[in-house]
Write a structure and sequence with these properties.
- It comes from Paenibacillus rhizovicinus.
- Pfam families: ABC_tran.
- Residues about 290-300 have low confidence and may be disordered.
- The chain is globular.
- Helix 3 packs across helix 4 (about 110-125).
- It starts with a strand and ends with a helix.
- The strands form three sheets. Strands 6-7-8-3-9-10 form a six-stranded mixed β-sheet, sandwiched between helices.
- The protein has helices spanning about 45-50, 75-80, 95-105, 110-125, 140-150, 170-185, 195-200, 220-225, 250-260, 280-285, 305-310; strands at about 5-15, 20-30, 35, 60-65, 65-70, 80, 155-160, 190-195, 205-210, 215-220, 230-235, 240-245, 270-275.
- By secondary structure, the chain is an alpha/beta fold.
- It has eleven helices and 13 strands.
- The protein binds adenosine-5'-triphosphate (ATP).
- Adenosine-5'-triphosphate binds near residues 20 and 43.
Length: about 300
Amino acid sequence: MNRTAIATKGLRKSFGQQTVLDGIDLTVQSGTIFALLGPNGAGKTTLINILSTLTKPDGGTASVNGHDVVREREDVKRSISLTGQFAAVDDMLTARENLRMMCRLSGFTPADARSRTAELLKLFDLEASAGKLVKTYSGGMRRRLDLAVSLVASRPVLFLDEPTTGLDTVSRRALWDMILELRDRGMTIFLTTQYLEEADLLADRIAVIAGGRIVASGTAQELKSRFGGELIELHGADEEILAVYATDGSLQHIRNTLNELAEQVSPDTRISLRKPSMDDVFVALTTTSTTSSSTTSTTSTSSTAKVEEAVQ
Ligand SMILES: Nc1ncnc2c1ncn2[C@@H]1O[C@H](COP(=O)(O)OP(=O)(O)OP(=O)(O)O)[C@@H](O)[C@H]1O
């Protein structure tokens, strides 16, 4: 049975004159991974801060695990883990010592602290280095320990603010596996990211935030399918992409689009066909055609639709 873990309605937040969240409506089902995707400064951290009770909204409502984030703040706090919340991972202690200390501070008995520590070291693949000082850890190991520490107390909802920023590809993939494992154990995970691939591969549902609003939401497949079947890319002499046009993938539409483009672009323009990616969705939703590198001086005609137009 699907249960709602996080819900917001008309959520608003401004800092001074700047409106950061301009009426956010979201629903996240229990036991799923939800990715909030958006460019720098879009309001992702502000939304996580509101949902985790660190910041008060100016208007609208939000609930986590059935509790209102303003009126039932303590209940919300007891329902969530937030990575980085306990940024106090001590560099001069080992991972095992850090975890045991956090367990004891959270009220575990010594025996329970030992077994929870062992469980978390295993889950986050830190057993081999559990006895080494944290100051000797790589960025990826450190991030895994941060996550392990934030999960000392078992809570149903986990907030991850850009969990893999700055990690190399191997560490990023290792962390993704762990996030998926947490979801499979029944946790609800709300993460923010600027990495399209991360949202694409991890999330059950994605919402794209831009200009203080949710401009699109759905599964990765649903978002990509807004473009239809195939994209036509126009390339210049140096292989640079001049423009991207959406088609429904049918021979008829592709032929009509090419015929119309042939009248507008120089004869040595090259073309290629490809499937839509999350990058296309993101660029189309978060940039205007004047700033996109995929613009051209051609005008849209009856069967041509640049990706920025196709997805709106
Ligand atoms: N406490 C604050 N006081 C004033 N302005 C703030 C405050 N917190 C955030 N802002 C502003 O609100 C906007 C959104 O910030 P936020 O950190 O939520 O964005 P973000 O999507 O998380 O960005 P990034 O991906 O860069 O972390 C930014 O313009 C930021 O400068």
